[in-house]
Specification:
731 residues; alpha+beta; Helix Hairpins; D-amino Acid Aminotransferase, Chain A, domain 1; OB fold (Dihydrolipoamide Acetyltransferase, E2P); 5-stranded antiparallel β-sheet; 18 strands; flat; disordered N terminus
Amino acid sequence: MYFYVRNNKGMIREKIEELRRTLDYHNHKYYVENSPEISDREFDVLMRELQELEAAHPEYADPNSPTARVGSDLTTEFQSVEHRFPMLSLGNTYSLDELHEFIGRIEKELGQTEFVCELKFDGTAISLTYEHGALLRAVTRGDGTRGDDVTANIRTIRTIPLHLQGGDYPDFFEIRGEVLMPYASFDRLNREREENGEPLLANPRNAAAGTLKQQSSAVVAQRGLDCTLYQLAGDDLPCTTHWECMRKASEWGFNVSDKMRICRSQAEIDDYIAFWDEERRKLPFATDGVVIKVNSYTLRRELGFTAKAPRWAVAFKFKAEQALTRLESVDFQVGRTGAITPVANLDPVQLAGTTVKRATLHNAEQIALLDIRVGDMVYVEKGGEIIPKITGVDLSQRPADSKPFEYITVCPECGTPYHRDCYKKEGRCINDELHSKHMSWKAEVEEKEQAEGLKCSVCGNTLRNDQLFCDKCGTPTPYYLSQKDKADGEEQESFSNGDTFFNNAEQNAMETMYPYMLNYSDPLCGFSPDEKYDEDMTTKDIADFIGSNTRFYLPKFRVMKATKFKLSFNIPAMLFPEFYFAYRKMPLLAFLVLLIKSIISIPSSLMGMKIMLTEYGFKDALVNMYPSFEAALTKVAEFSVTGGSFNMLYNISSLVSWVVIFIFATLSNYFYYKNVISKGSKIKKSAAASGINVSEALKSAGGTSAALLVTFIVLYFLSTYAVMAAILLIV
């Protein structure tokens, strides 16, 4: 009821802020310090409590609440934002000699210089802006001058603090870092993609960058991203060296690498590089080199920048690991969308601490570019790639009888013709529709008579009467189109009888079939009008009874009929179930809902009345208007809402309210479905017996009622005042 959301605002807000502080603390202990103090279950209980309070009190919304970690399904258009401090790239080198020249040049100009060495993380760069200790904005590198605002997605990364710890941080500053996808998250994501028949992601770097650009932050939250920060930027930093600033950043709650080292000589830098060139294989995330930076900010300002990069830092890149092995054969994998990917089968070889037996060949163009042939000795590389790839061929070891590789011309799954030019155009196997109908290609044994004058409409090739695809260009033939129409007719017939469509309810959830079977330009959604839902009601009858919004209800009713699954979401019924049922001509159910809500709202109404009388000063005014109620109003104003019994009653009523909301949000469509079938069957029988037009009778009895809706709106407000009056009378 009305007073359900009007409770002690001060108490609620304090509770919300307390929960946020507690969750921020435990989040940092778990994800950054790796020293949790409470169990996952205890953390989840606190998170659910906060989510419920925030949902009930949107006026206390905070974009940096811990609940932002779970993300949102709302689509976000990324806005371009100009960097306050340009995000320049670093100069790279693969040579120790070039690195020594860099160090020598700096020391020649500045004298002996202190450097900081740190790992070069292989992810995607990010700039985080904080204002008064709270995350304000997160922007990608972009072109170095402007980047995309990905704040909503960044909030889901648990190693990024939404609120800083301590109090000695600047009011406004930026911190740069790298968004990473740990190996564990990457492996899990690729397993899921493989199970779904999707192309595998090449490396964690690409996976992290792609994830950060997801339109749904809820998807980002599930991907398990991490973030390591490595550079402060601002006008009023609390320290004079990079090392000191990173220690400060760690104290504020940022995830700063503990692999950083101060190096005061060329030899120390070389030792750091040599150590991590070997040890990096033990890290849980990808690295591709070492960054060497001048430690002093004063010296950095003296050195300045070039047009593209700072003169006080350089990145030393590790060499990619390679192995030489023999290409035994090539397999072709068909993905869910019909995409065909060639995969090399290799003589097993050790590479980067693992045994490699297979490597991606990407596509036909890559095979042709490298001139890869079965039997070749090939170079396999990982580098930053988790999935091995072939990068070259040792031509000196090529067998004399080797033959150029011939890319497949038929689908490896069903044997139907597979034409690469058509695939490039369509983005899938050209026979994907036949695959989905479980049809397979049967090669012709005998040469059949060719139809005189029957030509391919694209290339002019002569065709057979029963030829499905042109064997020259792969274009579907008239015979294919006729078979497709026939298959479509058979599919529609199976829909009509209603028994053969669902052989396995769990496997054939109706929603997954919508792209193939629903026609939203048709009020019947493309369903057969004669398909029966019980012994009396057909699709046409149900549509007549529903009246409006058949496109919303019919698919859901069909799922309920076929799978016996009752749950589906209905937003109007979640918000105002009594109004929904009244509008859909279900007055008894509407009245029952109104009664239930009135009863469970009594505790919240009592609390609301107390707040109205005390905090908002309405008591005196009401006493003047209704002097006979002075004693009752005084008792309500003095009523204690902090007592144990009342708190228990209030909490129980709140719990029951959420249960009621869940029931009506998920089961209202089912209630309406049963009402349609029950009432519709009776009306249809009665109309048939009386000689009345069945369709008109169903339309008249069903549909919606604005009059009932208005009636229950009035009853809703009357019940609110009735509850208040009952409280005063009881008191």
